[in-house]
């Protein structure tokens, strides 16, 4: 699919033709018409990756059972695993209370990250102060 055929909607553009209008009305898109999608392994509960969805990607995800995203770098839709074989089968999808973030629970086949690691967060740990319970105050 070319970028011209699958241009992301803007924040004020209409929803994808197949997306439920009630759901489309709940979405709070960024200026490029995208919503953040946090992807979690349905079994282990590990966060696998973060992607972006336009209305068409969300519609396809909800109606095909395969996670579909909007590639900000390629400016086109992509089905996770279409070329790599590292497929994400959707088990559930939720919209957060603000309407600006989706949570997908998936069955991940193969590595989730394009770097061939289980998650996009492997090796990305940052140093952070961890307070003991007795040190935690309001």
From TrEMBL:
Pathway: Amino-acid biosynthesis; L-histidine biosynthesis; L-histidine from 5-phospho-alpha-D-ribose 1-diphosphate: step 3/9. It catalyses: 1-(5-phospho-beta-D-ribosyl)-5'-AMP + H2O = 1-(5-phospho-beta-D-ribosyl)-5-[(5-phospho-beta-D-ribosylamino)methylideneamino]imidazole-4-carboxamide. The keyword DNA repair does not apply. It is an enzyme of class 3 (hydrolase). Its EC number is 3.5.4.19. Binds 1 Mg(2+) ion per subunit. Residues 49-121 form the Phosphoribosyl-AMP cyclohydrolase domain. Belongs to the PRA-CH family. This is Phosphoribosyl-AMP cyclohydrolase. The gene is hisI.
């Amino acid at each position: 699919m070319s970028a011209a055929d699958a241009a992301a909607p803007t924040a004020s553009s209409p929803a994808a033709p197949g997306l439920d209008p009630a759901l489309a009305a709940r979405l709070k898109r960024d200026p490029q018409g995208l919503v953040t999608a946090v992807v979690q392994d349905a079994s282990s509960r590990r966060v696998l990756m973060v992607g972006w969805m336009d209305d068409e990607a969300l519609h396809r995800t909800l109606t095909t059972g395969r996670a579909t995203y909007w590639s900000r770098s390629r400016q086109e839709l992509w089905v996770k695993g279409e070329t790599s074989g590292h497929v994400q089968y959707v088990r559930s999808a939720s919209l957060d209370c603000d309407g600006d973030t989706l949570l997908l629970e998936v069955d991940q086949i193969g590595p989730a990250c394009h770097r061939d690691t289980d998650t996009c967060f492997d090796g990305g740990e940052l140093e952070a102060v961890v307070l003991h319970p007795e040190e935690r105050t309001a």
